[in-house]
Known about the structure:
The complex is a heterodimer of chains A (114) and B (114). Chain A is an all-beta fold and 114 residues long. In chain A, 0% of the residues lie in helices and 53% in strands. In chain A, strands 2, 4, 5, 9, 10 and 11 form a 6-stranded mixed beta sheet that branches. Chain A is globular, with a radius of gyration of 14 Å. Chain B is globular and about 40 Å long. By secondary structure, chain B is mainly β. The model of chain B has no long low-confidence stretch (mean pLDDT 93).
Amino acid sequence: DQQVKQNSPSLSVQEGRISILNCDYTNSMFDYFLWYKKYPAEGPTFLISISSIKDKNEDGRFTVFLNKSAKHLSLHIVPSQPGDSAVYFCAASAGRTGANNLFFGTGTRLTVIP
Amino acid sequence: KAGVTQTPRYLIKTRGQQVTLSCSPISGHRSVSWYQQTPGQGLQFLFEYFSETQRNKGNFPGRFSGRQFSNSRSEMNVSTLELGDSALYLCASSLAGENNQPQHFGDGTRLSIL
């Protein structure tokens, strides 16, 4: 049972434009959400996170939006750069239950075209 | 600041053998989690250790075990290896036991079972 879903396996965007990656979740106990970027032969790199008490968090070119009623979050990258080309994973945890383990989506491969 | 270090990077074993993987967390991080990544199942949580105690466990058979030492370094062990255990094993560390802290990953150990 996939509790975190990324329904788009791939996304292509022109350099300088906005990249929007989407993620849906089913477990209402999730209260902490993260985005990771992964290059081949490397581990996931933490990008940005958001607590369920917020609906937006921004860090430089990266902004994460959380819509709790829709159980949906998205990552916006503006402007997109060729170095952003990687697989992006959405993850969630239910910290309020005392559990720190992350549930991951299946990833979206972003390609930024120069 | 050094990141999460996993050794070895690559390992080849045969069915029935056992294997031990090692993880050194980021300095000051006391929580260590292990994940398995396979093409079919994606990233799945194995277990988490904090202060030398297993705090949380995923849905894996008892052949998968782990431990944490007083310096927060962790090892995971897989006994009686099966072909399906071929995967990338990732270790992640986070700050002192608080929930809703980002986990930072190592580059993983690629385990191949022949």
